Amino acid sequence: MAIVINGSGTVTGLSVGGLPDGTVDSGTIATGTIVDADVANVAASKLTGALPAISAANLTAIPAANITGTLPAISGANLTNLPGGVEIAARGSNSNGNYFKFADGTMICTVDLSTSQQNNGATAGAFYYSNSNTWTYPVAFTGSVKVVGMTQGGHYNAISVKTPSVGTSSCTFMTLSVNSTGNAQGVVLFAIGVWS
Predict the structure, then answer these.
(1) Is 175 domain-assigned?
(2) Taking a C-beta distance cutoff of 8 angstroms, is the pair 104, 84 a contact?
(3) How large is the C-alpha radius of gyration of the chain?
(4) Per the domain annotation, does 38 fall within a domain?
(5) 161 lies in which domain range?
């Protein structure tokens, strides 16, 4: 078939492979000429050579319908550049309570314990107090630790928890009461510090 240049600016009569390699490049293709529909369902055999690196900026607004197949397993090593200070790096528990390690180095430990009685005293402003007890944290801290406690259940006259001594691996605590009582008193303790 003869090659014809039409008055509309189109060319007819070219067969597949009729132009030498390199004749058509990105500079000779008008913007908008090739759309997504033109490159859909391209056979894998047509994609040859090394693919360019794909950055996160290129992977935006991908329709869910275009993501098919089984996703690979994702390990913690693949989850980089997440906002700092919010993700939990590890959590666990043992006979000494629960712990939560955060990626920014913060650690929180909690435990439910009890004191046996509050009949010592009365001192410290006429308050009665329990014997001193020790809480060994489920995981030791590596720096300064702050411990707070509150009474839970038990006798209604118990009003407070005191922590006379606080260290990086344990603390001591006692409960205070307005009346002398031999009843057991539940307490909840929270320790916050750093683990790395």
Answers:
(1) yes
(2) yes
(3) 36
(4) no
(5) 88-194
pTM of the model: 0.55
DSSP characters over 84-98: TTSSEEEEEEETTEE
- Total number of domains constituting the chain: 1
Looking at the chain, how many residues does it have?
Answer: 196
* 3-state SS assignment for residue 105: coil
**Contacts with 93 (C-beta within 8 Å, 6 or more apart), sequence order:** 99, 138
* 3-class SS of residue 169: coil
CA dihedral in degrees (155, 161, 164, 168; nearest 10)? Answer: 120
- Residue given tokens 């500079």 in the structure block: 27
Residue 15 inside a domain? The answer is no
Domain containing residue 126: CATH number: 2.60.40.2080
Per-residue pLDDT of the chain (196 residues; tens, 9 = 90+): 577 777 776 777 767 666 666 666 666 777 767 777 776 677 777 777 777 777 767 677 777 777 777 766 666 566 566 555 457 788 999 999 999 999 889 999 999 998 877 777 765 567 888 889 999 999 999 999 999 999 887 766 778 898 999 999 999 998 888 888 888 888 999 999 999 8
Query: Per the domain annotation, does 102 fall within a domain?
Result: yes
